[in-house]
Amino acid sequence: MAREFFVEVPKYGEIPCANATQYTGISEILYRLSCAAIQSKLYIVVNLGEVEYCDFNTDSSCPSDDGYHYNTNVVFDRNGAIVSRYRKFHLYFEPQFNYPTLEYSTFNTDFGVEFGLFTCFDIIFAHPAVELVVNLGIHNFAFPTAWIDELPFLTAIQSQALWAQSNQVNLLASGYHQPDRGSMGSGIYSGDEGALNYVFDASSGTKLVTSLVPITSYHTTSYFKRFQQPTQSASQDPPLEPYHMWLREDLTNCSYKPIDPYLNHEFLCHENSFCCNIEYSLNSTSYSGHLKLLVFDGRRTVAAKRDWFEWQVCAILHCLNDTLESCTESSPESSNHPKFNFIKIQAQPLKVEYGDEETSAAQPGMSLLDTKFRLIPQSQFKILRWRDSTTGNMNAEAETTSTSEISHFQVKTVALIQKVYGGRL
């Protein structure tokens, strides 16, 4: 990114819209955003390139071009004032940016909600995102992203819904739309309710996503207050256009086995340490496609193996043929897609990273996708955790609810995932 595309962010409380003459050239963007916040009476979170100028005479680490460059979120309140800033800590092939000091950034609103900030690749890691939940009790987040979609578990919308559910928070995710490079997907998510509204459509272009969002309280019994469902059901989004680019996860280290559509149950362990038991009922015994049970417990590298995280995965996958690689492929239009009447997934034992097993922020969550790349609502499943009285281990179970409409969906991915957060190799 050329230097002329970076802006110097002023101190908190400053209102760029109040001083047009000061904000010229590239910094005019701050003036326009500030004025837009005033005119629309909205809070605005914008991701941009920031420069912080320095002098090598007083700072021996100062870069040769006399400035630190950051991938930064800037927040404007309704009065046009800059009220918060967050510099992305985990960079993903972004040589134009410097690594900042770790920040835990939040902002308060006049409607009584405090939001946390993090950006894109940060969602993989504990710092700062999960620690904002655990240590600061933040349960509402604004999240700009340019995520690159990966099958079968980590498209943008799967990642966003999984993170909101496993941390029991509200997540407002704004995704960069460039499907030919693999980036698209925005949504509003709320804990176990999943997507309140979202868009994941290569042909949509820029689109405003709105929903009435519940005000939550952390770790309460009645977590969600009543809220209005979006007028357009997320499950009615159109299928993707063919020019969307996908990454495909390397599944070769996973344990897997074919699922017999007539058997109604399967069991499999990964390296004899983490085991998954599934019970299921297909709504047609004539299904002749390729379903696999996949199990994994271990470290997963990302970003050309520079970074990593650990997770435990129990998954039912629809594949194109007998090969494991085909489970990461997009499905052509066909009537031979699996539909289930009932699914139960049990995973044991779980790893826990934050707090004890009862209060851990990183709970198990669901990664759900149908064959047209639409989210299967997380509300179709109920997740339970319990401690085995014999072994003392924590186990988890995800089961379709008594009111589930899972039979309406052609399943691509149904996965119960426990995330264990990682870091740089």
TrEMBL record:
Presence of the UniProt keyword Signal in the record: no
Keywords for this protein: Hydrolase
Keyword Hydrolase: yes
Annotated CN hydrolase domain residues: 1-215
InterPro entries for this protein: Biotinidase/VNN (IPR040154), C-N_Hydrolase (IPR003010), C-N_Hydrolase_sf (IPR036526), Vanin_C (IPR043957)
PANTHER family membership: BIOTINIDASE (PTHR10609:SF14), BIOTINIDASE-RELATED (PTHR10609)
Homology family: Belongs to the carbon-nitrogen hydrolase superfamily. BTD/VNN family.
Protein name: CN hydrolase domain-containing protein
